[in-house]
Specification:
This protein is of the alpha/beta class. Among the domains are: 78 residues; 112 residues, OB fold (Dihydrolipoamide Acetyltransferase, E2P); 131 residues, Purple Acid Phosphatase, chain A, domain 2 (4-Layer Sandwich). 31% of the residues lie in helices and 11% in strands. A five-stranded mixed β-barrel has the order 1-2-3-5-4. β8, α13 and β9 form a beta-alpha-beta unit. α2 runs parallel beside α4. The longest helix is centred in the N-terminal third of the chain and has 27 residues. It is flat and about 110 Å long. 18% of the residues are buried. One of its GO terms (biological process) is DNA replication initiation.
């Protein structure tokens, strides 16, 4: 072991406590002063700054040296346990094919003197069954090793049979118990056609969603349409002539009316928008989509947010900053209301009894099978009680179901349409829904539905023809209900 003089020669003058720590490191790792000095220099380079030789830095240096020593010991232990690759002795000169992959397979292929490193790597990695420790973390194990711990076979799934579930039909909670629950089916129930109508305020064909596929020009057109619609509403509310509306980004020495959308130049989400960061963005038709900074000093008070459509009386003498004089109030939109005659018609439709709705959400089968016993019992109850409307939310064919994941279900090849999961839906789901004849059925897709085209919101409706949903209403999203 090196002496204190050797340490002083390499490190210079050292405090007593530092000298003691360095001597301890020499004894623990059985190295000399020169090797320890090399480790100290390596540590200084790694820390990236001028480090003084004091007790605090030497303590962290000891911790770092211990970690490096443990890493080296683990690497040596693994290399000692790994079996050595044995090369087959060759006598001929290596003039064979690339990587010697045909070596010895054909008489015309010359033998090499010794296998190359590349060949040994290919022989070991490409043509051997992976070792157990390499495949233990995989969901599906190699055949000689057996399935890993994360692999579950259908027979190994432990699930309570649906017919043996505890407390079937138990009422968990009742809201507004003072309201009398009618006996279903209603006496003389005529069916939902004369009592319920499904009305959509949108054209469903225009909402065939394509997530992640929207073009920027399409989004810009929607934003421009909102500004133009707001211009019409402001003009009608305040009786403003067309010539008073101007481009907010142009030079405006006189007070005019401008309409646009509030935006901000603050990009970081951590920061809040303030008065100095607000801009007005014009539409592409009136202002070519330009932006101009707002000067709100003349307003006594205001409340804006990014994306808000606004109308101002303002000036822009320099074309650089819009001096807002006043904010034009938006038109008043009256709440939805029904005429007395319409209400009387609704009461007449519901003369047989109150409006009754069933709501259920999937999945509709247990994890150990695809028999859909839950759906079958639910449909039995619907057929028996005859409610006016039935809302069924997915998932129906659940992508998280173990048997769906593995594809472990039979396929009827006699009626095979080329779509495996869609055929399963028709066999298990559509066949049950067709039993409901006196109730309106509405299906709402889930992001876990294997037969849905979209795996994220917003979602399009289920495909009626492909799934055989001829007598079932379909809606796109839960928000539409």
């Amino acid at each position: 072991m090196s002496s204190p003089e050797d340490l002083a020669e390499k490190f210079g003058e050292l405090p007593d406590e530092v000298m003691v720590e360095l001597q301890n490191m020499l004894r623990i790792y059985n190295i000399d002063a020169e090797d320890l000095f090399f480790k100290w220099e390596e540590y200084c380079l790694k820390m990236g700054e001028d480090i003084k030789l004091n007790l605090k830095n030497i303590t962290t240096f000891k911790d770092d040296a211990r970690e490096q020593f443990e890493i080296e010991m683990r690497a040596k232990s693994k290399s000692a346990q790994a079996p050595a690759a044995r090369g087959v002795q060759r006598t001929a000169k290596n003039t064979g094919d690339v990587f010697n992959m045909l070596d010895g397979l054909t008489p015309a292929t010359p033998r090499s003197a010794a296998p190359s490193a590349a060949k040994r790597k290919i022989e070991k990695a490409g043509y051997e069954t992976p070792l157990a420790e390499r495949t233990s973390k995989l969901a599906v194990g190699s055949s000689p090793v057996g399935p890993g711990p994360g692999f579950r076979t259908p027979g190994a799934i432990t699930s309570v049979p649906f017919r043996n579930r505890p407390d079937p039909g138990k009422v968990m909670e009742v809201y507004n118990p003072n309201i009398e629950i009618p006996e279903l089916p209603l006496p003389g129930y005529p069916g939902y056609e004369s009592r319920v109508q499904f009305a959509a305020l949108i054209q469903a064909k225009n909402f065939g969603y394509k997530p992640m596929y929207q073009k920027l020009v399409a989004g810009s057109q929607v934003l421009d349409d909102r500004i133009e619609e707001y211009v019409v509403a402001i003009q009608k509310e305040h009786n403003i002539p067309n010539e008073d509306f101007c481009n907010p980004c142009s030079k405006l020495p006189e007070e005019v009316v401008v309409v646009g959308r509030i935006v901000t130049d603050v990009m970081e989400s951590q920061k809040r928008s303030n008065e100095a960061s607000l801009l007005l963005e014009a539409s592409r038709g009136d202002g070519e989509g330009g932006r101009v900074r707002l000067d709100l000093s003349s307003l006594k008070g205001y409340a804006f947010y990014p994306g808000m459509t606004v109308a101002f009386k303002a000036m822009n003498p320099t074309a650089d900053k819009l001096l807002v004089k006043s904010v034009l109030t938006p038109p008043t939109y009256f709440g939805a209301g029904s005429k007395p005659s319409d209400m009387e018609e609704e009461f007449r439709k519901l003369g047989a009894g109150n409006f009754n709705v069933f709501v259920a959400a999937g999945p509709y089968t247990t994890d150990d099978n695809l028999d859909f016993e839950g759906l079958t019992e639910l449909v039995d109850k619907i057929v028996e009680t005859e409610p006016d409307a039935v809302f069924l939310s997915g998932p129906f064919i659940d992508t998280e179901h173990p048997k769906v994941k593995l594809g472990d279900f039979p396929v009827d090849m006699n009626n095979f349409s080329g779509y495996v999961l869609e055929d399963l839906f028709k066999e298990k789901i559509t066949s049950q829904l067709n039993r409901i004849t006196k109730s309106m059925v509405l299906l709402v897709p889930s992001t876990r539905d294997a037969v849905s085209k979209h795996v994220s919101f917003p979602q399009d409706r289920f495909q009626r023809k492909l799934l055989g949903l001829q007598s079932v209403r379909r809606t796109e999203e839960k928000a539409q209900l």
